[in-house]
Amino acid sequence: MALSLKMPEFLIKRQADTCSKCLLCVKQCANKVHYYDEKKDSVLSVDTNCVGCHRCAAVCPTRSIYILRYPLEFRRNAYWTEEAITSIYKQAESGGILLAGMGSDRDYPIYWDKMLINASQVTNPSIDPLREPMELKTFLGRRPKTVVVEEKEIKGEIPPKLELEVPIMFAAMSFGAISLNAVKSLAKAAEKEGTYFNTGEGGLHRDLYRYGNNTIVQVASGRFGVHPEYLNAGAAVEIKIGQGAKPGIGGHLPGEKVGEEVSKTRMIPLGSDAISPAPHHDIYSIEDLRQLIFSLKEAMDYKKPVGVKIAAVHNIAAIASGIARAGADFIVIDGFRGGTGAAPKRTRDNVGIPIELALAAVDSRLRDESIRNEVSLVVSGGIRNSADVVKAIALGADAVYIGTAALIALGCHMCQKCYTGKCNWGIATQDPQLTKRLDPEMGAERAANLIRAWKHEIKDMLGGMGINAVESLRGNRLMLRGIGLTDRELKILGIKAAGE
Amino acid sequence: MAVSINLKGLNFKQSGKLLKKAAAHGEKEIELTNVNGQRYIAAGLKGDLRINIYGTPGNDLAAYMDGPEISVMGNAQDGCCNTMNSGRVIINGSVGDIAGYAMRGGELFIRGNAGYRTGIHMKEYKDNVPALVIGGRAGDFLGEYMAGGIIIVLGLGIEPGDEIVGNFCGAGMHGGVMYIRGSAAPHKFGKEVKSVKMEERDYVLLEKYLKQFCDYFNENLKKIMEGSFQKIIPFNKRPYGNLYTPH
Q1: Does the beta-carbon distance from B128 to A267 stay under 8 Å?
Q2: Is the terminal CB of chain A with fewer CB neighbours within 10 Å at N or C?
Q3: ipTM of the modeled complex
Q4: Residue A223 vs residues A66, A305, A499, B85, B204: alpha-carbon distances, Å
Q5: By the 8 A CB rule, do B122 and B130 touch?
Q6: Taking the domain A10-96, which CATH number applies?
Q7: Do A362 and A316 meet the contact criterion of CB atoms below 8 Å apart?
């Protein structure tokens, strides 16, 4: 066999004196890192197979496993980095497109961390959320230009809305990319917390129809599992044009992941690749998009909002304006940090723009055109905590989607190997031995806890600003100040510098 | 007795409302007259009713439709049977682009020609096998990314020098089958498909759909079946399985 230049990423150290040889690590690792050597009567490991998911370390009853970065120093080179070199080794061996999981991990600026939130001091009192009511309720959908009220009743038709108890929803992740137990966890958590989860483009499993009131169903280019019952099962429909992790390209769910249940839900044969091409072949223009939006509205009798999800790209402001005018009830913008089950690495790491800048640009453009009030804005792509949520809303978002953060709540350790189908945490896999590790009840509890924790924190920060309703924070960029940003960046974000 | 709805001067929303109302009222035979480009007719409509359309329906006729049978006494425009689930659509004329996009069940019979990107993304699952029969010829990208179902192109009445299918026929195809009467040049096809020998069961399948075709459009089944057929299938159901390398 030819010499492989691939080296391990991690080094496994086992404390021989405390290891009880229970072999739990051997059983638990789908990557076959650990094995028992009878002759030596000890547990050994194949470092090369380790992806750094920490499953073994977490289950080890005696805490005898340490996972370290593999000590392999390349000669220092600011240009030819380790990543640059090892990528070439891999491609020279396989001739394939480099595949990556989760959002871009590259060292690009994080604008969330360059914005600071305001608080009240003396001149306007802050509000104590422990004693006073704080309103986080958010409605997503089209607003009519005028509302006529006669005898306490609204006259005329009000377009359909989504009602959120908290401006945080679970982002589109398909059954196929993640396990049914993971989807169930998010569905239950959404129901508990009065928000929504999104089916992604993989159809809706039979077991999930009961969560319909908390479901946003997605229609993507592959139209997997899209039929009238599916469209009407959810509370809203989202047309997926693009995704932040891979703007401009489609997706392939590999045949290995298309088992019995996925096949049934996507309505494609067992073991067949599920190919979502880059464009919807019936949408080549804003006018065509309008047609898909209205064909869906007709099919659902105008009873449910229809949104459009796009990736944050260079001309995002003009595109979003077109989408608003095409009749979308809400627009979802997914930034370049957005997660994915699988994306070509070079696309993930080099295509698209940060969500913070995209959001500010879109909100400003829609305001300039006096149509911001007609459409709701949802942003996603790397929302990590409640402060990111507050900053997003102050920049102009109505609500956010969380995907990666929700999966981390379920136990994801960000090893970024989602595309292998061997997720030891039972999330990004369809292997029944692995998926059973994620109990949907427990998963729901954890995801709901995360939403509740963020809710408290958002209320705290709102109160600190002297604001008692999230509605008053929306697009309120005076509540933000930039730190370490250029004039140009401050201008795009529409905020002042700290100290101004 | 068929109930008749006159769509003269009505927009798509008004037209849709009238049709849905009639369907909800339990009408089994509905006639739409003076149809003049109204989009989304019968979009998402369910049930076992028949609709006869006089005039030219607009884009996305029978999109997401689930059950009804529609006859169009004329041409249809783009997106006919887009993501249709079940039912039957019979076009006594030609259709525009992307007919049968992501069609997942049901049947579409076109007497004349079909435009570009016809039958792309068609899918099948167990008993849901969509079928699309084109009497004349089809434009470029016929059956692109096709993942299931049956496409039949007959080439009836095409002019000498006209090609029965356009370029990139079956590009990215990874499921389903296409039957092309006569033959098309090898360079017309995508690199993911191959031409294979017709078998007995292929003729049985063809006859099932062509008998219907001949009934609807008053054609001669025997004469059509006499011609030779080219059967096109994908090399495999995972055309891009070896494209990637783990990082």
Answers
A1: yes
A2: N
A3: 0.93
A4: 45, 18, 51, 11, 30
A5: yes
A6: 3.30.70.20
A7: yes
Task: Decide if B67 touches A, using CB distance below 8 A.
Answer: no
CB neighbour list of residue B15: distance below 8 Å, 6 or more residues apart: B5, B7, B32, B35, B38, B41
State the Rg of chain B over Cα.
Answer: 18
Interface test mutation site (partner B, options A82, A106, A273, A298, max chain B beta carbons within 10 A): A298
Judge: B125–A269 Cβ closer than 8 Å, yes or no: yes
Residue-wise pLDDT for A253-269, tens only, equals 878 788 889 998 988 88
Question: B102: distance to nearest CA of chain A, Å?
Answer: 6
Among A102, A309, A339, CA closest to A218? A309
Q: What is the pLDDT of residues A95-139, one digit of tens each?
A: 999 999 999 999 999 999 999 999 999 988 999 999 999 999 999
B82 and B60 Cβ atoms separated by less than 8 Å: yes
Chain B residues touching A281 at Cβ < 8 A: 98, 101, 117, 120-121, 141, 144
- Which residues are CB-neighbours of A267 under 8 A, at least 6 positions away? A203, A224, A225, A227, B104, B123, B125, B128
| Domain positions in chain A | 10-96, 138-497
Q: Which of B44, B79, B85 lies at the smallest CB-CB distance from A282?
A: B79
- CA torsion through residues B20, B22, B27, B29, sign: negative
pTM of the model: 0.95
> B15 — contact with chain A (CB < 8 Å)?
no
CA angle B104, B105, B109 (to 5 degrees): 115
Tokens representing residue A317 in the block:
């402001």
Chain B, 132 to 171: residues with Cβ < 8 Å from chain A are 141, 144-145, 147-148
> A138-497: which CATH number, 3.30.360.10, 3.20.20.70, 3.40.50.1000, 3.40.50.720?
3.20.20.70
Nearest by CB to residue A228, choosing from B66, B78, B175, is B66
CB < 8 Å to B82, chain A: 282, 295
A61-95 confidence digits (pLDDT tens): 999 999 999 999 999 999 999 999 999 999 999 99
**Contact status of B127 with chain A (Cβ, < 8 Å):** no
Residues 6 or more apart whose CB falls under 8 angstroms from that of A75 comprise none
